[in-house]
UniProtKB/TrEMBL annotation:
Gene3D superfamilies, per the entry: Rieske [2Fe-2S] iron-sulphur domain (2.102.10.10)
Keywords: 2Fe-2S, Iron, Iron-sulfur, Metal-binding, Nitrate assimilation, Oxidoreductase
InterPro entries, A to Z: NirD, Rieske-like_NirD, Rieske_2Fe-2S, Rieske_2Fe-2S_sf
Enzyme class: oxidoreductase
Signal peptide positions (record): none
This enzyme's EC code(s): 1.7.1.15
Protein name: Nitrite reductase (NADH) small subunit
Keyword Transferase: no
GO molecular-function term, one example from the UniProt record: nitrite reductase (NADH) activity
Length: 125
């Protein structure tokens, strides 16, 4: 027997989708979330920055990115937060999704903003 669960997605007038509260995410760690019928990886860095990306590794398609290794690199004089895929360790920028370690496909990323104690994601994954 299976159950059908209806997903309720809160959406603002400007098209932002409610994701979670900032304190729901652990610093230095990622979490996978089911949002709008897609798997999304949410990250909170040790520096208190928040990012959202596809949970699918663009290299293999494996649903693993929320279990990746958070880090950072200096690029053009700026510190940039990164995520390394936990399987083959390709490294992606969390702000743009660009792959830094190979000429691989970029990781789809989604802007996150904090409003009134809630994280909101621009668009749907
Ligand atoms: S599975 Fe992601 S880099 Fe290989």
């Amino acid at each position: 027997m299976s159950a059908v669960v209806e997903e309720v997605v809160l959406e603002s007038e400007d098209g932002m989708v409610s994701v979670c509260r900032p304190e729901d995410l652990e610093p230095g760690w990622g979490e996978a979330a089911w949002l709008g019928g897609k798997q999304v990886a949410l990250f909170r860095t040790e520096g208190e920055d928040f990012f959202a990306a596809s949970h699918h590794c663009p290299t293999s398609g494996a649903k693993v990115m929320a279990r990746g290794i958070l880090g950072d690199q200096t690029i053009d004089g700026h510190r940039v937060s990164t995520i390394a895929c936990p399987l083959h360790k390709e490294v992606y920028r969390l702000d743009t999704g660009a792959c830094l370690s190979a000429s691989a496909q970029p990781l789809p990323v989604f802007p996150l903003v904090e409003r009134q104690g809630q994280l909101w994601m621009a668009g749907r994954p």
